[in-house]
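Researcher: Next sequence.
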Amino acid sequence: MLLALCLSCALPALVSAKTTAALKVAFSPDIAGASTTVTFSAAFTNSTGGVPAPVTKSVTHLPAGLEVELAGATTCSRAKLELEEPGAGACPASSLLGAGSALASVDLGLEPIEEHAPVTAVLASNKPGDISFYFDGEGTYPITEQVIAKATLTGNARTGQTFTIKVPPIPSTVGGPNASIINFVMSLGRQKVISLARHHRGKIAQGRGIILPKSCKGKLSFPTKLYFEGQGPVSVATSVPCPRR
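Model: Next structure:
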């Protein structure tokens, strides 16, 4: 899933003999050293038709100098996310980090069943060198499930951090296969947080959010490893042009 930060001009990555993944990222504004909003997306397809294997984890190594600064932001517990109100409504507005959507699909023997669900990102932990997020997906029909994925950001921004997303199984029916993510889009950053906070009528998260590197040579690289249910890991070499100065 979050996903990981990838590329704006990514080539499809071979996941297995039957599954491919296309990953993209865009920054707004795209200016060196600026606070920015990042929109990233992932699309998974089965080259022979049908539903691809469910993604279970992504691990991305971020380029040196890309920072996440969330001073003053509050956190939200998993228990609050699991309350009945959808869209992270039980969480304080100052814990909101972004929002997006996911399209899930499952093959139950006839035509694949699809579910389009909103996804909200909230801050779970804000410790130096160890920041974590929750991605809260709320399916309603026909796949009526709440799916909470955990993402962690570890390491030092000066040398490059590691962004890991663990995606739990998405149940479909009792004894049936798990649903697969077909498409995932997420926007994270200060611009998105401001619009979300206005909707929730609360105080916005403080700090500068996502900050682009001040210097860059040639490109920003985001090497990513993807894991899928029943398959081995796949490495994807991705990069984006340097931000404007």
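Model: Helices lie at 78-81, 190-200. The chain has a mean pLDDT of 80.
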